[in-house]
Write a structure and sequence with these properties.
138 residues; alpha+beta; six-stranded antiparallel β-sheet; 41% helix; elongated
Length: 138
């Protein structure tokens, strides 16, 4: 019997010392106290790992958030940011190639997404601090 990609991902996450849990939609796990999901959409050629709902976005903040996301999307490789249903999501999507270690891909995805998470909040903090800096008005 051939193992499905979602099951292979589950094994690799366990090898990384993470505690993944299977759900109807795929897999959930935490890394550095951040929630991640792997969506099993029956596409055996691509892995898609997300940090969901990093921040809720309302209409007042949408422009600022999209500016940050555009900047990050232009700088980061294989990781993309989107606003989905009023929340910021970060996604790693990569085709699974023969000869490439799935474990290495998943480790790269998890760590890369965590770096993207940190960079998003660093940029957001900087924008908010600049906006709230009264000395900039004088």
């Amino acid at each position: 019997m051939i193992m499905k990609l979602v099951d292979k991902v589950m094994v690799e996450l366990q090898k990384l010392g993470l505690l993944p849990q299977k759900e109807e939609f795929g897999i959930v796990f935490k890394y550095q106290m951040v929630n991640y999901i792997y969506l099993d959409n029956d596409d055996e050629e691509y892995i898609k790992i997300y940090i969901p709902s990093m921040m809720n976005v309302d209409d007042d903040d949408l422009g600022m958030v999209l500016t940050i996301l555009n900047s990050l999307n232009n700088k980061m490789k294989v990781i993309k940011f989107v606003v989905e249903d009023g929340a910021v999501w970060s996604c790693y999507e990569m085709r699974v190639h023969e000869g490439v270690s799935l474990g290495d891909m998943i480790e790269h995805a998890v760590e890369g997404l965590f770096v993207s998470y940190q960079k998003f909040y660093e940029l957001l903090k900087g924008l908010v601090e600049n906006f709230n800096d009264d000395s900039a008005l004088n």
